[in-house]
């Protein structure tokens, strides 16, 4: 799937709405970049690949512990946060945030954005199957 202008607009909107976000990308669950607003394409590709690996572990962990379908994964490091949100069944939204980010606001806005991205990706897949 090529980069969708709708998905890219959603990423840019998310970055504008949440202070201290430094990047965002939408990727397929197998690690292919769908759209990115990180400033560096190579960084986005590496982040998408690592997201796919982390997603695999998160899916197994939620399943093994009976926690249901994957929704989100948040990692906090000394220099900030990496958070990944389910975007439907075929995509994820990963955001990078600085250490001063308001995590509650991040969750609120990223959950909304991931739902919209999931809808766009699902619509694109439906159109592709219809062709």
Which key terms come to mind for this protein?
131 residues; alpha+beta; five-stranded antiparallel β-sheet
Description:
This protein is of the alpha+beta class and 131 residues long. It is built from three helices and five strands, in the order αββαβββα. It has helices spanning 5-17, 41-64, 103-130; strands at residues 21-28, 33-36, 72-77, 80-87, 91-97. A five-stranded antiparallel beta sheet has the order 2-1-5-4-3, sandwiched between helices. β4 (80-87) and β5 (91-97) form a beta hairpin. α1 runs antiparallel to α3 (103-130). It is globular. The model has no long low-confidence stretch (mean pLDDT 91).
Quick overview:
The chain has helices at residues 5-17, 41-64, 103-130, and strands spanning 21-28, 33-36, 72-77, 80-87, 91-97.
Unreliable spans are none
Order of helix and strand elements from N to C terminus: HEEHEEEH
Number of DSSP strand runs = 5
Name the quaternary structure.
single chain
Strands side by side in the biggest sheet: 2-1-5-4-3
Q: What is the residue-averaged pLDDT? A: 91
Overall body shape? globular
Going by helix content, strand content and strand pairing, the class is alpha+beta
Query: What distance lies between the first and last C-alpha atoms, to the nearest angstrom?
Result: 14 Å
